[in-house]
Design a protein that fits this description.
The complex is a heterodimer of chains A (117) and B (114).
Chain A (H helix, E strand, L loop, with lengths): L3 E4 L2 E4 L5 E7 L5 E8 L3 E10 L2 E4 L7 E2 L9 E3 L8 E8 L12 E2 L3 E5 L1
Chain B lengths: L3 E2 L3 E5 L4 E7 L6 E7 L5 E8 L4 E4 L2 E6 L4 E6 L8 E13 L4 E3 L3 E6 L1
Parallel strand pairs in B: 2-11
Antiparallel strand pairs in B: 1-3, 3-8, 4-5, 4-9, 6-7, 7-8, 9-10, 9-11
Classes of the chains: A mainly beta (117), B mainly beta (114).
Chain lengths: 117, 114
């Protein structure tokens, strides 16, 4: 089944303890992206990746890192989490971004609910 | 930056039609999408419309696009309890965020009354 898989679904951690949220897609998609969803603020893009080894900042990248060593995986790293990073996080992927593949829709994972105390 | 606006809540009676509205600012928008988010789940693509169309129908769903006014709507006929969810409008253009040019609205919470 074609899907975007995030792990873990729920995570409670303490301030400053490094964590990684994994994201994997099995659709051979080139484009991958991380969003956070907060009440009243909707979806905000954290980082995105056009292809392997190509990543770029979205609207709210501060406090986050990403890597894209393989096409299927796009982990989100919080080196020193803080309480303001408590949120619901979504990974998404699509066949392409702009251009010829630009109409390919985003496929979303089921989300990771992170609480930082 | 570009903006997509939608009202935060809509309450309808079961069996009635729901109409969720959205306005966007990106005049370069090529595609407009509706995503559905059920509780505890990610966003699922519901339907989309290309900017040179003004209407698209898919079973109970009708999408209307007024490109001149930059207004998009999603009509759900015969609304059921399973339609209860948050509905996100998104526009894709050359001015939007990220490499995909997507700008999302904040989502409309559709509440179904029995």
């Amino acid at each position: 089944e074609a899907q975007v898989t995030q792990n873990p679904r729920y995570l409670i951690t303490v301030t400053g303890k490094k964590l990684t949220v994994t994201c994997s897609q099995n659709m051979n998609h080139e484009y991958m992206s991380w969003y956070r969803q907060d009440p009243g603020l909707g979806l905000r893009q954290i980082y995105y990746s056009m292809n392997v080894e190509v990543t770029d900042k979205g609207d709210v990248p501060e406090g986050y890192k990403v890597s894209r060593k393989e096409k299927r995986n796009f982990p989100l790293i919080l080196e020193s989490p803080s309480p303001n990073q408590t949120s619901l996080y979504f990974c998404a992927s699509s066949l392409g971004a702009r251009g010829l593949l630009g109409n390919s829709p985003l496929h979303f994972g089921n989300g990771t609910r992170l609480t930082v105390t | 930056g570009e903006d997509v606006e939608q009202s935060l809540f809509l309450s309808v009676r079961e069996g009635d039609s729901s109409v969720i509205n959205c306005t966007y600012t990106d005049s370069s928008s090529t595609y407009l999408y509706w995503y559905k988010q059920e509780p505890g789940a990610g966003l699922q693509l519901l339907t989309y419309i290309f900017s040179n169309m003004d209407m698209k129908q898919d079973q109970r769903l009708t999408v209307l696009l007024n490109k001149k006014d930059k207004h998009l709507s999603l009509r759900i006929a015969d609304t059921q309890t399973g339609d209860s969810a948050i509905y996100f409008c998104a526009s894709k253009g050359y001015s939007g965020g990220g490499a995909d040019g997507l700008t999302f609205g904040k989502g409309t919470h559709l509440i179904i009354q029995p």
